[in-house]
Amino acid sequence: MPPTLIHSNVQIPGRGVLIKGFLAYPEGGDRLPGVMIHPGAPGLTDEVRGVAKRIANEGYAALAYDLYSRQPDAPTGAPYMEIVPYYKKITDGTALMDLGSTMEYFRSLSVIDPDRTGILGFCSAFPTVFACHDLRLRACISFYNQVYYSGEANADTAVSPIDRVPSLWCPYQGHYGDNDAVIPVDEVNQMESALKRYGKQYEMHVYPGAPHGFFSENNYHQPSAELSWSRTLEFLRIHLAG
């Protein structure tokens, strides 16, 4: 039987903003490994809260983060073309600042072992960028995170995520589809080459027939979603739970 979960929406003190989040962990847990979850462009939806609960059911504390906390008028869960003007306002600077505040809060909780934390992200590049700045992270899991920034979707384009690979501090696991119209396999291969070139500890998985967002309800690709999840749990077990 899965454990009884404690879960609730939380407000996290940031720099000039209250950051919205969703916290879940198994009842009675103490000094648990913690996983911070960064949603994709639609934001902190019920689907993302569900991912946090799935992780908590595996014996972790999970904290999902609202990347639109500085934009309360952002239409959470809206179609991509409707949400992208809000997404484009997020800069690397504000993202790193708010992710840092959120992780600081997460590590301060008595239920967390602050030395066993990781980040898991969907679509957005900011989890990878954060993993290149936080020296205490022990795992970064990327579900089709951006490899290169684009002018259509990003405020900052000068320094793309792939350019930050030399500063990646923790083991990295990537999950991408070979039918992804947003992030082509060639970019994934370039990311893997950079990880290899700079001697990073990594796993890169490319799933046949999987589109962009294959883990989400709208583009769900069952074999890829199930296999990537089992690989995610094994990665977390090795790098956080052990």
Folded structure, characterized:
With 242 residues, the chain is of the alpha/beta class. It has one domain (15-241): 3-Layer(aba) Sandwich (Rossmann fold). The protein is 31% helix and 24% strand. It contains six helices and eight strands; from the N terminus they run E-E-E-H-E-H-H-E-H-E-E-H-E-H. The chain has helices spanning 46-57, 80-87, 92-108, 126-131, 185-197, 222-241; strands at residues 5-13, 18-26, 32-38, 61-65, 112-122, 140-143, 172-177, 202-207. Strands 1-2-4-3-5-6-7-8 form an eight-stranded mixed β-sheet, with helices on both faces. The longest helix is centred in the C-terminal third of the chain and has 20 residues, at 222-241. The radius of gyration is 16 Å and the shape is globular. The two termini are 22 Å apart. The model has no long low-confidence stretch (mean pLDDT 95).
Element layout with pairings:
Elements: E1 5-13, E2 18-26, E3 32-38, H1 46-57, E4 61-65, H2 80-87, H3 92-108, E5 112-122, H4 126-131, E6 140-143, E7 172-177, H5 185-197, E8 202-207, H6 222-241
Parallel strand pairs: 3-4, 3-5, 5-6, 6-7, 7-8
Antiparallel strand pairs: 1-2, 2-4
Considering the protein shown, what is the CATH homologous superfamily? Answer: Alpha/Beta hydrolase fold, catalytic domain
Helix content: 25-40%
Distance, first to last CA:
22 Å
Low confidence ranges: none
Helix-strand sequence: EEEHEHHEHEEHEH
The CATH topology label is Rossmann fold
Beta percentage is: 15-25%
CATH level 1 class label: Alpha Beta
- CATH architecture call: 3-Layer(aba) Sandwich
The tally of structural domains comes to 1
Strand order across the largest sheet: 1-2-4-3-5-6-7-8
> Main β-sheet, in a few words?
8 strands, mixed
Give the tally of β-strands: 8
Q: What's the overall average pLDDT, rounded?
A: 95
* Count of individual helical segments: 6
Gross geometry:
globular
